[in-house]
Amino acid sequence: MEQSRRIKFREDERSLLLRLLLQVASAREPEIAAVLSGRRSLVSLAPEQRIPALQASGVWFQLLA
Predict the structure, then answer these.
(1) What's residue 1's pLDDT?
(2) Disulfide: which of 17, 39, 49, 51 matches 45 by Cβ 3.0-4.6 Å?
(3) Which domain, by its residues, includes 55?
(4) Binning pLDDT at 50, 70 and 90, where does residue 65 land?
(5) How many domains does the chain have?
(6) CA-closest candidate to residue 32, choices 20, 19, 46
(7) Phi and psi at residue 20, in whole multiples of 5°?
(8) Mean pLDDT of the 41-63 span
(9) What is the pTM of this model?
(10) Given CA atoms 61, 13, 30, 35 in this order, what sign does their dihedral have?
(11) Where are the extended beta strands (E) located within the chain?
């Protein structure tokens, strides 16, 4: 029973972290926020925006770790 509570908490934690990351990215670089949320592909970005988008993805993976 306690195991299921931990899993639910982790899901809520991930949702909160993603929401906060998307808020920051939306305020600074809306195109990158669209990539993080899955509404836009990395390939559709201008070449100079691709590295920052990959860095933002890296931040997301670090938050999950």
Answers:
(1) 46
(2) 49
(3) 2-64
(4) confident
(5) 1
(6) 46
(7) -70, -40
(8) 96
(9) 0.77
(10) positive
(11) none
Q: Kindly report the CA angle at 25 between 23 and 15, in degrees rounded to 5?
A: 50
Mean confidence (pLDDT) of the chain: 88
Q: CA-based angle 57:27:55, to the nearest 5?
A: 20
CB atoms near residue 52 (< 10 Å): 16
Q: Give the pLDDT band (50/70/90) at residue 9.
A: low
* CA 16 and chain centroid, separation: 10
Let me know: does 21 contact 3? Beta carbons within 8 Å: no
| Tokens encoding 61 | 């993976």
As a whole number of angstroms, the distance between CA 50 and CA 31 comes to 10
Average pLDDT of the residues in 27-46: 96
Question: Cβ atoms within 10 A of the Cβ of 57, count?
Answer: 14
